[in-house]
Amino acid sequence: MNTIDLTPLYRSSIGFDRLASMLDNALRSDTSSGGYPPYNIEALGENRYGITIAVAGFAEDELDIQVERDVLTVRGRKSDDEQERNYLYQGIAARAFERKFNLAEHVKVTEAEMRNGLLNIHLVKEVPEAHKPRSISIKNADAAIEHKS
């Protein structure tokens, strides 16, 4: 596995520690989950997004969705009564999982819904007015001097 040392980035940047941590986590991504459960991320509009996670076999009360410090975490854990079943063959995966999604600044989770074994999470990017680009008018200083004379 290739490793990249991000120490110079920490030394010469101020306020970018979250970005460096994201890069570090991405480079060390844990592949032990084997892609379970599968998911889709889609753009639903200019500032609207959706995450769809295949959670077949999980009930709503066996799922947990949390947002903390711009990280969306979805966890699934089967109840204990499911563990006691005596399967002759178990082809439907029902193991516990945890999926994390890094959210960009100002992206908020608006709602989550379950339909047909799919967990749909809706997100919207709400940029505050203070952060939106604005135009600055340029005054002609020479014209102001001519009017005073």
Describe the structure.
This protein has 149 residues and is α+β, with helices and mostly antiparallel strands. The chain folds into two domains: 1-30, no CATH class; 36-129, Immunoglobulin-like (Sandwich). It is built from four helices and seven strands, in the order H-H-E-E-E-E-H-E-E-E-H. Strands 1-2-7-6 form a four-stranded antiparallel β-sheet, with no helix packed on it. Strands 3-4-5 form a three-stranded antiparallel β-sheet, with no helix packed on it.
Tally of individual domains: 2
DSSP strand content: 25-35%
Any idea what the CATH architecture of the largest domain is? Sandwich
What is the alpha-carbon Rg in Å?
24 Å
Tell me the name of the CATH class of the largest domain.
Answer: Mainly Beta
Q: Roughly what percent helix?
A: 10-25%
* Spans of at least 5 consecutive residues with low confidence: none
Envelope shape = elongated
Summarize the biggest pleated sheet.
4 strands, antiparallel
What is the element string, with H for helices and E for strands? Answer: HHEEEEHEEEH
InterPro entries: A-crystallin/Hsp20_dom (IPR002068), ACD_IbpA/B (IPR037913), HSP20-like_chaperone (IPR008978)
Protein name: Heat-shock protein
Family: Belongs to the small heat shock protein (HSP20) family.
Keywords: Stress response
